[in-house]
Amino acid sequence: MAKDKDRDKEKQENKETASLTQWQQRNLEFLKKRQEEKLEKEKKEEQRMAEKKAQFQAEKETDKPVKKVTETTDEKSAKEAKEESFKSIAQTKKKKVKKKKKAPVIPRKELWQALLIIIISSFVLMASLFMISPFSRQKTVSVSGSKNAIEAEIIEKSGIKKSDYLTHLIFNRKHYEKAIEQKDNWIKKARIDYRFPNKFTIKVKEYNILAYTQTDKGYIPILENGTRVDTVNASELPESFLKINLDDKEAVRRLVQKLAKVDKAIVEQIKTISSANSRSTKDLLLLEMKDGYTIRVPLSDIDTKLPYYPKIKKDKADGSIIDMEVGLYSTSPEIEAKLDDNRSKANSESSNNSTTPDKENTSSDADSSQSSSDAVTEATTSQ
Predict the structure, then answer these.
(1) Bias category Low complexity: which stretches (predicted)?
(2) What's the topology of domain 209-331?
(3) Angstrom distance (rounded) from CA 156 to CA 178
(4) pLDDT for the residue 16
(5) Which CATH fold topology does 136-206 show?
(6) pLDDT single digits (tens) 314-338
(7) Tens digit of pLDDT for each residue in 212-221?
(8) Which of 229, 208, 227 is nearest to 219 (CA)?
(9) 197: preceding bond cis by omega (within 30 degrees)
């Protein structure tokens, strides 16, 4: 009967082991071995204890130090056995924990996406904090390149305010540049440069002064675009300058535009420009040159006829009058005076003889026209 029971136990154990996994089976075998080892150790310890008792009784007086040594060795062996059992159990637990708990692996794409989100969010946070702080409005504005325009007026006309944000000024620089060019007559071109962190420089290019016109209050500079600026004192005038004596602002603007097309060397030789008060040509101008010559030329043709002046004056005497009204010819003040006298005589005779017969009038008119034609032929030189 006992054998049958043992066989039944073995069958049950075999069935249980078959249902278990390999790791569990190995664990069970390991535990069985440990139990067998414990039983063997207990048996050995019992035998040793019996032997010790016998020896203790026989050698009680003689072998006391030997007994102490044996006792310590037995204690050490027991401790070592316990430590080994604990270590084996701990190792099995660690293996179980390692198999159960595996750290999840995060893919690199997700890591980069998370890093990008963190960078963007931190940048937005810093930007928002900067915009809230007073540092977002602190800036220094300076002007460079201005000779006649006043720096404070340029900044004021630009429209830049202390309350403006730095970002608004950086991204809307063209708006402020146009405002300066439109509001300040001196400024031809304006450009705003930004330097980190909060420095702005308004670089300007001014219009050149082409001429001056005299008024009761003083001299008014006329710029190269034809506009007039604030009056200056006589002490502020240069040593030599062009003086324009024209009241019509539109005529002055057209004149400046025409002179811009002429060689600067010729323009620099002009002393004064005034109206010739001609009845036949309303825009006829009278130009007094620095070298003593006088030029009569229409405003509409000044850019095309004035370039011939250096060639014409080579063969003419000093102080000659160069007439460019219709053609190109030269005369002198004496001849011009004779022409004026003949014209005045003709006008007076025509007024005095208005009541005389037609024959007398025709004869006097013929005489006056003959004298004037003689004066003109004397003055005219073909070009």
Answers:
(1) 363-375
(2) Rossmann fold (3.40.50)
(3) 13
(4) 57
(5) Ubiquitin-like (UB roll) (3.10.20)
(6) 877 777 888 888 777 666 656 565 5
(7) 988 888 899 9
(8) 229
(9) yes
